[in-house]
Specification:
Elements (H helix, E strand, L loop, with lengths): L1 H33 L5 E7 L11 E3 L3 E7 L6 E4 L2 E2 L11 E5 L16 E6 L2 E6 L1 E3 L4 E5 L9 E7 L4 E5 L6 E2 L4 E2 L5 E5 L13 E4 L2 E2 L14 E3 L14 E3 L5 E2 L1 E2 L2 E2 L5 E8 L10 E5 L22 E10 L7 E8 L5 E7 L8 E10 L4 E2 L2 E2 L3 H6 L6 E8 L5 E14 L3
Parallel strand pairs: 2-9
Antiparallel strand pairs: 1-3, 3-6, 4-5, 4-7, 7-8, 10-11, 11-15, 12-13, 12-16, 14-15, 16-17, 18-32, 19-24, 20-23, 21-22, 23-32, 24-31, 25-28, 25-32, 26-27, 26-31, 29-30
Length: 421
C-alpha cells in the first residue's frame, strides 16, 4: 500500500511539474507575442457581426469599437483625442482590442482643437490613426416659434447640432440640406422652412447629423394648421377686435406694438408695468369666451371627446420687448370645468423665452397640467364641456416679484394641439 501511495504521489508530482512547464511555456509564448513588434492598426469597426467587413473613421460617444490589427496583445492603453479609454485584457487578442467610447472623451462639442486621433500603446510602441470622435446624435429640446410657414426661418434649440446634414420637415421629400446655420456651442440651429411642407405626413421636425438623427416628440412639432381657438384675425364664435370675451381692450389687438411685429395679421398686445406681487388689472388678461354658449374649441377628426386629455397641449406664441428682467413673470392658463372647479397652470416665461427683443416664442402646456388640487381633465370631452354652458379659456400675465416689471408683451395663435396620436 505504501508503494502504491508513493507511485500515486510521484505521478501527481509529475503532472504538477508538466503543468508548470506548460504554463511557463505559455507565459514565454505570450511574452514573445507581446514583444514581437510595435502594434499596427488595420481598421476599426463596430462589434456588430453584420459590420465585419466595414471600416470606421469616426464614432460617437457611447459607441463600442473593435480595433483590428497586429501585435495588439499586451495593449496597455487606447487613447481617443489623447483621452484614455481603459483596456480590459479580457477583450484583447493579438489581432483585436474592444473598447468603449465613454462620455468623457473630448469631441469638437467641447474642444474644437481636439487632434481627432486614435492611439494604441503596448510595450513595443504605439500605433496612431486619424479617427474622429463625434458628439451624440442631436437633441431638439425646443422649437423657438412653432407657428411657421413655407419661407419662414425656423429656429431650434437643443444639443449636439454639429456636422448637420439634413433637417426634415413634414411631407414627402420636404427636407433642407443647405443654408443651415448653427452656433459654435451646437445649441441652436436655424433653417428656412421648405415650400413643400405637407402636414398630412405629420408635424415633426427632425435633425440629422453625422452622429445620427434626433428623436421626435411634443417638443419637435410645428403648427399643422389645426386646432386654432384665437388667432385675433379670423371671425367665428369669437369676433375681433371686440366680441371675443373680456380682458384687454380691443384697441390693443393690432398688427404691431412697440418693439413687436406680428407673425401674421393682428395679435393681442399689452404695454404696461405689470403689477408686483400678483397684482391685478384687466389689461393683462385675455379671457376667451362666447357668452351665448357657442363652442369655441376645436372638434371633429383628431379631437374626439373620448381621447385622453393628456394627448392634447394648449399652445400659443408670446413676444416680449423689455430691458428689464422677466424672471418672476408667469403666464397662467385658466379654465373652469363643468363641476365648478377652476383649473390652472402657470408657465414661468423666462424658462421658455430666451430673448426679450420682441422675438416670438411658443409656450406650451399639456392639458392635464391644468389642475385644482388633485382635480384635472380626464378626456377631451371634459374640456369641450367648459363650465357646463360657456366655454372659457383665460391667459393672465402674473408678476410674482415685489417690483413692477415694465414690458410690452404680445400673445397670438392660442390653440389646442393634438400632440400625441
Amino acid at each position: 500500500m505504501n508503494i502504491i501511495k508513493n507511485i500515486r504521489s510521484s505521478h501527481s508530482m509529475l503532472v504538477a511539474s508538466a503543468l508548470f512547464v506548460v504554463l511557463a511555456l505559455g507565459a514565454c509564448t505570450e511574452e514573445d507575442e507581446i514583444n514581437v513588434g510595435p502594434p499596427t492598426i488595420e481598421r476599426v469597426r463596430s462589434t456588430d457581426p453584420t459590420t465585419a467587413d466595414s471600416a470606421f473613421t469616426s464614432a460617437t460617444l457611447g459607441s463600442t469599437l473593435a480595433i483590428l490589427g497586429n501585435n495588439l496583445l499586451g495593449t496597455q492603453q487606447v487613447y481617443l483625442n489623447d483621452y484614455p479609454l481603459g483596456v480590459n485584457t479580457a477583450y484583447v487578442t493579438n489581432n483585436s482590442v474592444i473598447v468603449t467610447v465613454g462620455d468623457s472623451v473630448p469631441t469638437v462639442a467641447t474642444n474644437p482643437d481636439v487632434p481627432n486621433t486614435l492611439r494604441l500603446v503596448n510595450k513595443a510602441g504605439e500605433a496612431i490613426m486619424e479617427f474622429q470622435t463625434l458628439p451624440p446624435a442631436p437633441q431638439v429640446t425646443q422649437v423657438k416659434n412653432q407657428y411657421v410657414k413655407a419661407g419662414d426661418d425656423l429656429t431650434l434649440f437643443g444639443r449636439y447640432f454639429y456636422f448637420v446634414d439634413t433637417v426634415y420637415f413634414p411631407g414627402e421629400d420636404a427636407f433642407v440640406t443647405t443654408g443651415i446655420t448653427t452656433n459654435s456651442a451646437g445649441s441652436s440651429l436655424t433653417v428656412k422652412v421648405p415650400d413643400n411642407v405637407d402636414f398630412s405626413e405629420g408635424q415633426f421636425v427632425r435633425v440629422v447629423t453625422r452622429s445620427g438623427g434626433s428623436a421626435t416628440g411634443r417638443n419637435t412639432q410645428i403648427y399643422a394648421e389645426r386646432g386654432m381657438v384665437a388667432d385675433f384675425d379670423t371671425n367665428g364664435a369669437l369676433v375681433w377686435p371686440w366680441e371675443w370675451g373680456w380682458g384687454l381692450s380691443g384697441d390693443m389687438i393690432q398688427p404691431s406694438q412697440p418693439g413687436i411685429s406680428s407673425l401674421e395679421g393682428s395679435f393681442a398686445g399689452m404695454n404696461q408695468a405689470f403689477p408686483a406681487s400678483y397684482g391685478w388689472n384687466n389689461d393683462k388678461v385675455i379671457n376667451l369666451v362666447n357668452w351665448g354658449g357657442v363652442q369655441i374649441f376645436p372638434e371633429g377628426e383628431g379631437y374626439e371627446p373620448s381621447t385622453p386629455a393628456t394627448n392634447f397641449d394648449i399652445r400659443f406664441e408670446v413676444a416680449i420687448n423689455t430691458t428689464e428682467s422677466i424672471e418672476g413673470l408667469e403666464m397662467q392658463i385658466w379654465y373652469p370645468d363643468a363641476n365648478g372647479n377652476e383649473l390652472s397652470y402657470n408657465i414661468p416665461m423666462s424658462e421658455v423665452i430666451r430673448t426679450t427683443d420682441g422675438s416670438w416664442y411658443t409656450l406650451s402646456a399639456n392639458m392635464t397640467r391644468l389642475t385644482n388640487g388633485s382635480t384635472r381633465l380626464n378626456t377631451y370631452g371634459d374640456f369641450l364641456q367648459g363650465d357646463g354652458f360657456a366655454k372659457q379659456l383665460r391667459l393672465v400675465v402674473i408678476n410674482t416679484t415685489s417690483n413692477d416689471i415694465q414690458a410690452v408683451l404680445g400673445v397670438d395663435n392660442i390653440r389646442v394641439v393634438r400632440a400625441v396620436n
